Amino acid sequence: MIETTIELSGRVRAMLRAVAAGRAELSGGGEPDLYVDGLPCSDRAAIHDLVHLGLVRALAAVRLDERAGAELTEAGRAAIA
Predict the structure, then answer these.
(1) Residue 70 phi/psi, 5° resolution?
(2) Which of these, 5, 15, 53, 59, is most buried using a 10 Å CB contact count?
């Protein structure tokens, strides 16, 4: 098994903790936006990276104008452990 290390900024760790706490939603689409406590996260590039790296995913498939709850993947949980 190959291990990779991802260095995460404090802001990104906070985003992951919000997801882990059940306070986050993702919008639909290939480049989803993150909402924490109903407010949009301003670091769109970071959340796009987290989704593409497989650290965060939506709980359900939704359209572009909809949101779904967000959850950490196993890799996401390991990243903030």
Answers:
(1) -110, 150
(2) 15
**75 φ, ψ to 5°?**
-65, -35
Give the per-residue pLDDT at 1.
Answer: 46
- Enclosing domain of residue 55: 10-80
Going by C-alpha positions, the residue among 35, 79, 32, 21 that lies closest to residue 57 is 32
Tokens of 62: 């939704």
Does the residue 30 lie in any domain? yes
Going by C-alpha positions, the residue among 30, 36, 38 that lies closest to residue 63 is 30
pLDDT tens for residues 13-71? 999 999 999 999 999 988 999 999 999 999 999 999 999 999 999 999 999 999 999 99
Residue 5 belongs to some domain of the structure: no
Any domain includes 44:
yes
